[in-house]
Write a structure and sequence with these properties.
Ribokinase-like; about 40% helix; UDP-N-acetylmuramoyl-L-alanine:D-glutamate ligase; two-stranded antiparallel sheet; globular; 11 strands; nucleotide-binding; pyridoxal kinase activity; 8 helices; alpha/beta
């Protein structure tokens, strides 16, 4: 299976493609990464070096890959952080060209906008781009709870409200949705929910909450879910596999005492999770 992944990249640590590529490769997926930025480290450190690439650069790299004649063998396009609406438009153009070459290919958009507690952390033009252009173009979307609320215009404090927000988000375009982290009134304080919705209904997985913020965890989650969904075309199976692997990764990272995700040390979690959490229909 071949996935074209268009995301940010860091030399040190794991966010964007530096978080998503290796887990997919460990699953046996061939990944073709295109970088939207090349930073020394993620911006949460407060200081970093490196350039942001313009949309024209992304288009140029994509044209070079396309010239190899491999777009018909591309099974999916995965996108994450877009530094601006112009970069986002370049990403959508690449996704459209892949789907023109292979109508069976799917586009998965991780609509990176912000997070609970942090608010919006992208440029002002990005949220509306995600709502008006990226979501309508996507087959699969993987917002977190904050992004689901922003995209749907609904507050989500209960599972009933989550259902309403998910229905509205589906109406924006994607047939498949993954809410990567969800905490409602029904969620125990020591747990976190992951919810996926698609043609076969809404499915949820509840895992123990690890009381730490993990930069890049959403990037890993989107990559794993999309890879599993491409293979099995089942939201229930994909959310169970992704949640199990991510919990194992985060538990290993917390136990290590390190601040960065321990992708290499915990790599078996991507193929044989140490603990399996089954999805239940909601």
């Amino acid at each position: 299976m071949n996935i074209l992944s268009i995301q940010s990249h860091v030399a040190y640590g794991h966010v964007g493609n530096a978080a998503a590529v290796f887990p997919m490769q460990r699953m046996g997926v061939e990944v073709w990464p295109i970088l939207t930025v090349q930073f020394s480290n993620h911006t949460g450190y407060g200081a970093w070096t490196g350039p942001v690439f313009e949309g024209a650069m992304i288009a140029e790299i994509a044209r070079g890959v396309e010239a190899r004649g491999v777009f018909p063998q591309c099974d999916g396009v995965l996108s994450g952080y877009a530094g601006s609406a112009a970069i986002g438009e370049a990403i959508l153009d690449v996704a459209a060209r892949v789907r023109a070459a292979n109508p069976e290919a799917l586009y998965c958009c991780d609509p990176v906008i912000g997070d609970v507690g942090r608010g919006v952390f992208v440029r002002p033009d990005v949220p509306e781009f995600m709502r008006r252009q990226a979501m309508p173009a996507a087959d699969v979307a993987t917002p977190n709870q904050f992004e689901l609320e922003l995209l749907s215009g609904c507050q989500v404090t209960s599972m009933a409200e989550a259902r309403d927000a998910i229905r509205i988000a589906h109406g924006l375009g994607p047939a498949v949705l993954l809410i990567t982290s969800l905490h409602t009134a029904e969620t125990p304080d020591d747990c976190i929910d992951m919810v996926a919705s698609g043609p076969e209904g809404i499915w949820g997985v509840r895992t123990p909450r690890i009381d730490r913020y993990f930069t890049g965890a959403g990037d890993v989650t989107a990559a794993l879910f999309f890879s599993h969904y491409l293979r099995e075309r089942s939201v229930a199976s994909a959310v169970s596999a992704a949640a199990s692997s991510v919990h194992g990764l985060l538990a290993a990272t917390a136990a290590s005492g390190q601040s960065e995700l321990q992708l290499v040390q915990a790599q078996e979690e991507f193929v044989a999770p140490s603990r399996r959490f089954e999805a239940i229909q909601l």
